[in-house]
UniProtKB/TrEMBL annotation, chain A:
GO annotation, cellular component aspect: ATP-binding cassette (ABC) transporter complex, substrate-binding subunit-containing
PANTHER family referenced in this protein's UniProt entry, alphabetically: MALTOSE-BINDING PERIPLASMIC PROTEIN, MALTOSE_MALTODEXTRIN-BINDING PERIPLASMIC PROTEIN
Organism: Caproicibacter fermentans
Gene behind this protein: mdxE
Any one GO molecular function term: maltose binding
Name of this protein: Extracellular solute-binding protein
Signal sequence interval, chain numbering: 1-22
Similarity annotation: Belongs to the bacterial solute-binding protein 1 family.
The organism's taxonomic lineage, starting at the top: Bacteria, Bacillati, Bacillota, Clostridia, Eubacteriales
Automatic annotation (TrEMBL), chain B:
Coiled coil: none
Name of this chain's protein: Maltose transport system permease protein MalF
Superkingdom of the source species: Bacteria
Domain ABC transmembrane type-1: 68-285
Matching PANTHER family: ABC TRANSPORTER PERMEASE PROTEIN, DIACETYLCHITOBIOSE UPTAKE SYSTEM PERMEASE PROTEIN NGCF
Membrane topology: Multi-pass membrane protein
Length: 422, 295
């Protein structure tokens, strides 16, 4: 009996150990299979056998589908697989340098370019294609993915903010900020919950449009915070006059619900809201962002450029295949397909010659805004600035804190945070 | 194999697994806390001694100490209310002649059945939202100006406490209810014969009898409350939905530091400090229980 118990105990212990290590074995297996596929890719590139390329992304299916269709044209020589990756930024930090688990490419907005370039996991796209091949791209989009004079991103499409209004509620759209303020005073009733304009006033990405039109910036190109500049104080003081006539929480959910339910006449948002507006059956129009009377400049929003990055791991193993993928995405056809399927503004300027794109009001508005839009800064220090700036904006606009004091405090925290990065 | 080494041999697989999934991450975090692992030294971090600890403990304006004090206040208030209210509810649930007892108990367990993430967002968007929230809807019916519940430091702190308590009550009530049911009824019968009232029965019989049973649950909940992240973060700190209230706890503070600065060395130091605090609390509470048991 005793021997039997011992045997059972040993068996159970072995099972526990075995099952616990199964997970490890799985990843080891995956690692070895990835390593094998990497080796296979090298040899296949030489012998014209199919090469598989893995792309990580966090984009909607509507965006990935047309890109996949375009890249499928490279098969059977190259097979491209798109893999949705939650928290891709964190995943890249953990495994971006690990050939067994990292992808070959990833699709992402440009603002993390500096972070990943600094970590040393990225290969410049000009290692695969020549810089002259990028000449058809809108200059702003190329600048967005350039860090320390190296182009790390192949721009695919870009997004920026636009002023969308409900034609049934708003007959004439004001063109200057002073006119907007008068209009908001006359057409906002906070007790009834009806608004002339809603915007995410305390989110750094949106509030930056006001800052830029006053000549202020969150951070300069060298990574130095600029939150306590006089221009910044002026911009936020002026902006706060408008916030008084907007919903206090200024969150995406609140703003979009108000607009989609007809309780807000206009909204400053990105193109991602258009499908919901269409579904809600709203007769909408797109208007240029207003010009600030005192500076004579329009609101200059941030632009986010989504594009393809190449990980260093793929540089030696799959160079030709990666180059072919990048060239395929550079073709106007890819941008046009994306514009048609997902209402996204292509980075390739040639796409705008196509009627399907040029007749799309929101895309043309974004193309025009691209003239003044400011690409989000891509220096690593920006990671600190998003949170610090948003903390200050929320405290000022939502918690009614004093502007100058908050900006001084935010500047101090930004400097501390940036120092803590080192 | 001798008698002394045999237990080690049998428990080796379990110890190996525990070491792999619990001990190794702790040791690795400890190692990271002495390095300058950040995006500038991602693949070649160097040892920098106690620099990260110095930053965390002695840079007073860095936010760590205010967050620590706030966390202690948060834990004390939450636990005091949780234990007191749960005790009262449990006693009431065990009152003689109470009808629909099981129905009430099921209702009280409801917050526990919901995922915390869903509960918190429901409270945030459904109850506290300044535009569409239930509280402001009621205020508007009373012709009272709407309140921005989550924007001020004090009001946001209180709102977070309400949500946390709502989610925490079921566990404490369940534990206390079970403990109360285990008390022999004859104690109460004797007390009644001696002329004891409700208050005396509660303080002289119920509380001393359930104390050893509920103490592990109280200690466990204290730790969970101390390292609470979801409630404070999702209610006030979520990127893109910040409310303007600064009510960081040590965990949300550590999270923000870790993920915005990508300085894993500094974040690891903060994590180790929190770990040490929790270990210290465990040792103190164990001693307290032992002494309590001896009495």
């Amino acid at each position: 009996m005793k021997t039997r118990t011992k045997f059972t105990a040993l068996l159970l212990a072995a099972c526990t150990m075995g099952s616990a290590l199964t997970g490890c074995q799985g990843s080891t297996g995956a690692a070895s299979s990835s390593a094998q596929s990497a080796n296979a890719a090298v040899s296949s590139a030489n012998s014209q056998k199919p090469v598989s390329i893995t792309v990580w992304h966090e984009a909607e299916d509507g965006i990935v589908k047309p890109l996949k269709t375009e890249l499928d044209k490279l098969s059977p020589n190259i097979t491209v697989t798109f893999q949705r990756k939650q928290n891709m930024s964190d995943a890249l930090k953990l495994s971006g340098n690990d050939p067994s688990s990292a992808p070959d490419l990833y699709l992402m907005a440009h603002d993390k370019t500096g972070t990943f370039a600094q970590m040393g996991i990225l290969a410049p796209v000009t290692d695969f294609i020549s810089e002259s091949e990028l000449s058809d791209l809108i200059p702003m989009t190329v600048k967005a993915g350039t860090y320390q004079d190296k182009i790390y991103q192949l721009p695919v499409y870009f997004e920026t903010q636009m002023l969308i209004y409900n034609k049934a509620l708003m007959k004439k759209v004001p063109t200057t900020t002073d006119d907007w303020l008068s209009y908001m005073k006359a057409n906002t009733d906070t007790k009834k919950g009806t608004y002339a304009l809603v915007e995410q006033h305390s989110t750094a990405y949106y509030a930056a449009a006001w800052m830029h039109s006053f000549g202020a910036t969150i951070i300069d190109g060298e990574g130095k915070p600029e939150l306590n500049s006089q221009a910044m104080k002026d911009a936020l003081t002026y902006h706060k006059r408008f916030v008084a006539y907007e919903p206090t929480d200024g969150e995406y959910n609140t703003d979009t619900t108000l607009f989609l339910s007809g309780k807000a006449q206009a909204i400053i948002q990105g193109p991602w809201l258009i499908p919901s507006i269409k579904s809600a059956g709203i007769d909408y129009g797109v208007a240029p962002l207003p010009t600030v009377n005192s500076t004579g400049k329009p609101l200059m929003p941030y632009s986010g450029v989504e594009g393809m990055y190449v990980l260093k791991n793929a540089e030696s193993a799959k160079k030709d295949a990666v180059a072919a993928v990048l060239r395929q995405l550079l073709k106007p056809e890819a941008g046009i397909a994306l514009a048609e399927a997902a209402d996204e503004a292509p980075a390739n300027s040639k796409c705008y010659d196509d009627a399907a794109v040029s007749e799309n009001a929101s895309l043309m508005d974004m193309k025009n805004t691209a003239q003044t839009a400011v690409p989000m800064q891509n220096v690593p220090q920006m990671d600190v600035m998003w949170t610090v700036t948003e903390n200050a904006l929320s405290a000022i606009n939502k918690n009614n804190q004093e502007i100058a004091a908050q900006l001084e405090d935010a500047q101090k925290k930004a400097i501390e945070g940036i120092a803590a990065m080192q | 194999m001798n008698k002394k080494s045999r237990p080690w041999f049998y428990s080796f697989p379990a110890l190996a697994v525990i070491s792999l999934i619990i001990l190794f991450p702790i040791l690795y975090t400890g190692y990271l806390s002495f390095t300058n692992m950040n995006i500038y030294h991602w693949f070649n971090p160097g040892i920098i001694g106690f620099e990260n600890y110095r930053k965390a403990l002695f840079v007073f304006d860095s936010g760590f100490l205010p967050a620590l004090l706030r966390t202690i206040l948060w834990t004390v208030l939450n636990m005091a209310i949780q234990v007191a209210v749960s005790f009262l509810i449990s006693v009431l649930l065990n009152s003689e002649g109470l009808v629909l007892k099981n129905f009430y108990k099921t209702l009280l367990m409801f917050p526990w059945a919901m995922p915390a993430y869903v509960s918190i967002l429901l409270w945030r968007l459904g109850i506290f939202n300044s535009q569409f929230g239930l509280l402001n809807h009621w205020l508007s019916l009373l012709k009272i100006e709407p309140v921005n519940w989550l924007n001020g430091n004090l009001s946001a702190f209180l709102c977070c406490m309400v949500v946390n308590l709502w989610m925490a009550f079921p566990f404490m009530i369940l534990t206390m209810d079970g403990a109360i049911q285990s008390i022999d009824k004859s104690y109460y019968e004797s007390a009644v014969l001696e002329g004891a009232g409700t208050f005396t029965k509660m303080t002289k019989i119920t509380y001393p009898m359930i104390r050893p049973i509920i103490m592990p649950a109280v200690i466990l909940t204290t730790f969970v409350t101390f390292k609470q992240f979801d409630t404070v973060y999702l209610m006030t700190q979520q990127v893109g939905s910040k409310t303007g209230a600064d009510i960081h706890t040590v965990i949300t503070y550590a999270y923000e530091k870790a993920f915005i600065t990508s300085n894993y060395g500094y974040s690891a130091a903060i994590s180790i400090l929190i770990f040490i605090i929790i270990i210290a609390l465990t040792v103190i509470s164990k001693k307290y229980i032992r002494e309590g048991g001896a009495q």
